[in-house]
Input
Amino acid sequence: MDLHPGDIVQIDTMLAGIPGMTGVHLIKGPEPALVDCGTQTSAPAVAAALEQAGIGPDDLAWIVLTHVHLDHCGAAGDLARAFPRATVVVHPRGARHLVDPARLVEGTHALFGDLSPAIGGLAPVPAERVREAADGDVIPLGDGRALRVVWAPGHARHHMALLDEGEGVLFAGDAVGVQMGGGQMYPTIPPPEYDVDAALATLDVLEGLGASRMYVSHFGPAAEPGEALDIGRRAQAAMGQAAREAHRRAPGDLGALRAAVDEAWPSDAALSTPDARVRWTAFNWLHNNMLGLQGMAEREARDA
Ligand SMILES: [Zn+2]
Output
């Protein structure tokens, strides 16, 4: 748990016991909000961190989810039970998965295989606790402070970012990329919904917000938001283009796609330290990036 300016508390969910991999953020104030909540396996650690930050069971007002991938939303059911006053805010496309998580959990476990127990599932969130957020919706935090919902598709269709308007702080989720263990920002491009055109349009929208600080879920504040957005944009443009061309030349050849993508935007800078390599490999994220890009190329070829 780290205290940041603006009453923002960064909580390390210690996913799989590894520090600096997945973070969630508490915004303290009259109506405290938790932005993302980590995997179900992290629910006890996050609940303990909230208690340590002085948030009692009846204090938490909002659990705001950037998207319904289990490393962001898996603890939502458990935390909704532990904090009975909290409303869970989510993109309309994600809401049904919170209420009836079976398909989401099944799909995630199919992707992660033996690693699934470290992630856990998702306890259903009662429908009356879920609020669907439109683009531009404002979540009041009290004392005139508010979080603005910014739909941010690309990483997933139901991804959204949150802007703490007064403080100029952007919670970007997975829209920009991942920076872990001292490595450079690098995209996270999972199946099944990644869409590079939507992702690039989202990066333009996020840049237009002019945030002075930006947090990414994996992990922490970007040293310079504008630079991070620029790297995210150039990387995703290069990788998306390379994946499309590779798929055209050799449909279904994942090795060829990986070689083309890594040539277009090498992952070396993201993996430049031993800590970064541990975090990137723990859940096969680099491999999942390739599956995300291949899925996108196949979808586009099918729909063409
Ligand atoms: Zn995600």
